[in-house]
Amino acid sequence: MSGTILRGPYWVTARRHRHVLRALPAVVAVCLAAVVAMRAWAGDTYADGAGTAWTNDGYLLLRLSVQYAGTGLLFLPMLVGAFVAGPMTARELESGTWRLALTQSTTPKAWLGSKAVVAAAASVLGAVALTGVYRIGWARVTGTYQLHWADRGTYEASGPVLAAYCLLGVALGVLVGQLVRRTLVAMAVTGVLTGVVLLVFGALRWSILPVRTGTMPLQGNLSKLLPGDSLMMDTGLLTSTGERLPEYACFERTRDLNDCPADMDITGWYAEFHPVSHYWPTQLIESSLVLAVAGVALFAALRLVGARRA
After folding, report:
1. What values do phi and psi take at 232, rounded to 5?
2. Residue 191 — left, alpha, or beta (φ > 0 → left; ψ -120 to 50 → alpha)?
3. How far apart are CA 68 and CA 73, in angstroms?
4. How many CB atoms neighbour CB 185 within 10 A?
């Protein structure tokens, strides 16, 4: 970020953390080059049939890299939050150097706001860029084991929700950094809090939109019960009255899933699922909820710093 663009405390913040800001585009460029190279090595893995993909070293390396990248990007919001809480906020409060900023006609809110703005801009740009790079690689291996659109890691890394969680990390960082005022402790607390929010939303996200239900006769083909690429939430047996029973109810008595005693009155199967069309609405709704939580945390941080005196 150039000094011709930033002024005052924003320029000071960008200057102080210039090494991290310069490293970010370098990391994105390296990741992009690696993904493009692996995709070129993988070639058209399906030209001679889907089975040839599993004998293609380039494809296997790409798939493994995308799988681990999705898991790794889950930790990005926690790293962002830890950095903002520790080196950017708590360290200056712990050492007392923040008082120097207040002698340069800077208010406490401007001091904290500069850190939040610079960190938010860098984290959003970085998250969006990394999401784009991830999708380039994921497009070649999507739908395979642990790389389904709804899988943990893949879901977060492939959409705008990653940037929303990074902004949450920024907001929690500036809040916790003020409250704790100890660099390492603030980093640990912020990382844990951000991780907890990730886990909570991850557990609740598939309750945001209502599931769809499919039914079929008892002797039907179970593989055709769900649309392709959908996320199954529940499945079981239906009686003539509409009562739902566990999928193993008949098996417990006959040792055959499709052989149900007459007294059970089983008429077919049901399945509850999320179709792939729920991906983007869920991403946008979850991002909005996360940003709302981030807004509350940032508001609390600004109120807190506004009451602080040098």
Report:
1. -80, 130
2. alpha
3. 9
4. 15
**Plot region of 255 (φ>0 → left; ψ -120 to 50 → alpha; else → beta):** left
**Are the C-beta atoms of 85 and 177 separated by less than 8 Å?**
yes
**Residue 227: count of CB within 10 angstroms of its CB:** 12
Q: Which residues pair with 180 in a beta bridge?
A: none
Nearest to 282 by CA among 194, 133, 160, 196: 160
Residue partners of 285: CB distance under 8 A and separation at least 6: 208, 209
User: How many C-beta atoms surround the C-beta of residue 175 within 10 A?
Assistant: 30
pTM of the model: 0.90
Q: Are the C-beta atoms of 163 and 289 separated by less than 8 Å?
A: no
The answer to whether 206 and 231 are in contact (CB under 8 A) is: yes
Beta bridge partners of 273: 212, 232
Taking the CA atoms of residue 1, residue 97, residue 187 and residue 107 in that order, the dihedral angle to the nearest 10 degrees is -70
Helix (H, G, I), strand (E, B) or coil at 273: strand
Per residue of the chain (310 residues), what is the pLDDT tens digit?
444 466 777 888 888 889 999 999 999 999 999 999 999 988 875 544 445 566 678 899 999 999 999 999 999 999 999 999 999 999 988 887 777 766 666 788 888 888 999 999 999 999 999 999 999 999 999 888 889 999 999 999 999 999 999 999 999 999 999 999 899 999 999 999 999 999 999 999 999 999 999 998 888 777 788 888 899 999 999 998 889 999 888 888 888 877 888 889 898 999 999 999 999 999 999 999 999 999 999 999 999 987 765 4
